[in-house]
Specification:
71 residues; alpha+beta; 37% helix
Amino acid sequence: GVCTIDPETKSCIGCLRTINEIGAWRTMTLDQKREVVAACKARADVAQTKGQQSRHIFGSKWSLEGPIRPV
């Protein structure tokens, strides 16, 4: 997919990665990517707690084992 940046949060409206995380993704280690995915999941949880509507991908199950990809 292609990230779409929310101008207010400076994060992707789908994956919730920040601009810096998106830019560094290709050079990150697998452990770093796992950290980013965990941070994005936490961002989704906060948004949900605040009752914010979003189109993020964390409504589905994500795997932090092996390659970073939806399952």
